[in-house]
Amino acid sequence: MRCFRPRSSKAADEVDKRAAVVDKHQANQSQQVSRDISEGGKTGTQQAFNYKLSRIMRPDDANIVGNIHGGIILKMIEEAGCIVSTRHCNTQNGDRCLAVLVRVEKTEFLYPVFIGEVAHVTADITYTSKHSLEVQVKVMAENILTGAKKLANKAALWYVPCSLQNVDKIAEVPPLKYASAEQEEEGKKRYEAQKMERLETKARIEEVVPAPPSPEQHTVGFSQSSLIHLVGPSDCTLHDYVHGGVTMKLMDEVAGIVAARHCNTNIVTASVDAINFHRKIKKGCVVTVTGRLIFVSNKSMEIEVLVDAASLVEADKGKYRAVSAFFTFISLDKENKPLPVPPLKIDGEEEQRRFEEGKARYLQNKAKRLADKERQQ
Q1: Burial track 241-280 (b if 16+ CB lie within 10 A, e otherwise)
Q2: Is 143 a catalytic site residue?
Q3: 336 annotated active-site
């Protein structure tokens, strides 16, 4: 049995004094946090509604050569966006709600992130409409040995608040205060543009044709890949619907497999065109994520990724198209320099049609990049 020597009166007083100082400091911190939250809810300013998360990149986040998977970054981006959006939407009285991802604008992967680096994800609310809000997200990659930082990714996401009492009820979004009228006007233009594009973009309902038994190398059928995933509790929100980040991670994994099969080299995500979430995916569904090559330029590949969902216990409801997007990948050598991509062998009118559509998107994006570059200069 261990025996404890009683403290002297002087030592006991000193400990009590230190404890009192700690308690006072903690109380002051709690009061400050309460004031920050209260004032943030009152003002609704952009500065009050931002969020930052940081995480060191581990070996299980990367591919076999140490590049962090684009899906990992996309998942972190969505998590930060969901947190800041949900916080903002719950700053007013009324039904408690959870922000749900409905669209991701074109996402740029500017620089690769590597194992051992720290990814700092910053999310800011930049515009609110009556029932939706825009979140701008940036990812900085930090080398913790040298302190060097680089802008690795940037994205824009749109969320809508769903009531916790009724998932089909869209709550109203608290208004945001803007630094200037011009800032609000620019946000409104982005809102109208994405709204129009969503109305024009129909869920692609065409069936994905199974690959032939022994497809020729560098054809669409040779690299076409699918992944089947059963949606479990850890994949879902409080509503029992899949997190957008989980879906995007699965989509990036499939697109990566397609690109690797076509090139047989190290491949990385270069960008993602607008991701449209057409319908919700509920817990217990089986999702089939299919990727296929659409277009190949000299140094990039456009891959269409389609997500179909079907209830495991309500088979009579059938399968439906839940999400669709186009991913762009590039091939890299051992020095992380771009490599030429093998040409895509086209077979049939349908593949040729999709190839021409992909080529038009490629040229449009290339022209936009050049215009942005000239504007910055």
Answers
A1: bbbbbbbbbbbbbbbbbbbbbbbebbbbbbbbbbbbbbeb
A2: no
A3: no
